[in-house]
Design a protein that fits this description.
It is built from eleven helices and seven strands. It is an alpha+beta fold and 287 residues long. The structure holds the ligand Cc1cc(NC(=O)CCC(=O)c2ccc(F)c(C(F)(F)F)c2)ccc1-c1nn(C(C)C)c2ncnc(N)c12.
Length: 287
């Protein structure tokens, strides 16, 4: 694939800044076009003052950029490069033409099984790629997923949370819904660095795609309790194949969760994602 944004040294003058796309997690995001090639991208502006000061973070930022720059997968938001001035860090990222997945989910309230299956298949492929590179996402949720111009999903903010200054704040303030049992139980944290945490969150994501709300959604205290017991009910109108896959991912013992290869070969995925006669009829013709 030709890499349009090749130069190692970027600077602000190289870009025409377009409309603001919104506020991202750490900064403002603008549509931008690289003057030379006309390449469209998303430019994220972060204020150094907002990133925790102190040497630790600078190192982490560099490591984060290092990890993200050499990841290349169709379902992972590409970081093309970065540059900074005295006050700001600029990230040049892939433009996701259809914006935030969670907005689509809220608007449609829940996804039909064929669409949910396609998204979960893409997530499994992206997570398999990340895990092969020893990157654990640890923050899989609809808010961290964008949609590309062709409807394909793009995971972002990956690895970022593994290296993020895991001050309890951003873990506690964010939703508990997606945290696996091993991350809410106190005690040994070594399970936090096991990639199986992403399998649990994939199960939570699949449930939320199909049902429109997270499986353990409740008051924080109750969510905590219900996650620790994997206490959820799946509505009877969910297909039995989908129920089967959810139950094989939302398993308390990390070692017993269905591996990504088997997720990709699960009957529910095969039924909806294999092109041609076996795929069930869909609203949209197969691309
Ligand atoms: C631009 C954009 C970026 C991201 N993800 C990230 O930036 C991850 C964090 C990161 O890569 C990172 C890497 C190194 C590093 F040092 C730091 C640090 F420490 F400095 F913070 C952070 C997620 C989404 C969007 C986004 N947002 N939008 C609109 C919906 C607002 C969009 N609409 C269309 N296309 C889009 N791409 C977006």
């Amino acid at each position: 694939v030709d890499q349009p944004l090749v130069p190692k040294q970027f600077h602000l003058g190289m870009f025409e800044i377009g409309r603001p796309l919104g506020k991202g997690k750490f900064g403002r995001v603008y549509l931008a076009r690289e003057r030379g090639t006309g390449f469209i991208c998303a430019l994220k502006v972060l204020y150094k003052s907002e990133l925790q000061q102190g040497t630790g973070v600078e190192k982490q930022v560099r490591r984060e950029i290092e990890i993200q720059s050499n990841l290349r997968h169709p379902n992972i938001l590409k970081l093309y490069g970065h540059f900074h001035d005295s006050k700001r860090i600029f990230l040049i990222l892939e433009f996701a033409g259809k914006g935030e997945l969670y907005k689509h989910l809220r608007r449609e309230s829940r996804f039909p099984e064929w669409k949910a299956a396609q998204y979960i298949a893409q997530m499994a492929a992206a997570l398999k790629y990340l895990h092969r590179k020893h990157v654990i996402h640890r923050d899989i949720k609809p808010e961290n997923i964008l949609v590309g111009i062709h409807g394909e999903i793009k995971i972002s903010d990956f690895g970022w949370s593994v290296h993020a200054p895991n001050n309890r704040r951003n873990t506690l303030c964010g939703t508990l819904d997606y945290l696996p049992p091993e991350m809410i139980k106190s005690g040994s944290k070594d399970n936090w660095y096991n990639e199986k945490v992403d399998l649990w969150s994939l199960g939570v994501l699949m449930y939320e795609f199909l049902v429109g709300e997270a499986p353990f959604e409740d008051t924080p205290i109750m969510t905590h309790k219900r996650i620790a017991r994997a206490d959820m009910t799946i509505p009877e109108w969910v297909s039995k194949e989908a129920k089967d896959l959810i139950k094989k991912l939302l398993v308390l013992d990390p070692e017993k969760r269905l591996p990504l290869e088997e997720v990709q070969n699960h009957p529910w995925i095969i039924k909806h994602c294999v092109k041609g006669e076996r795929a069930t009829n869909r609203e949209k013709p197969a691309k």
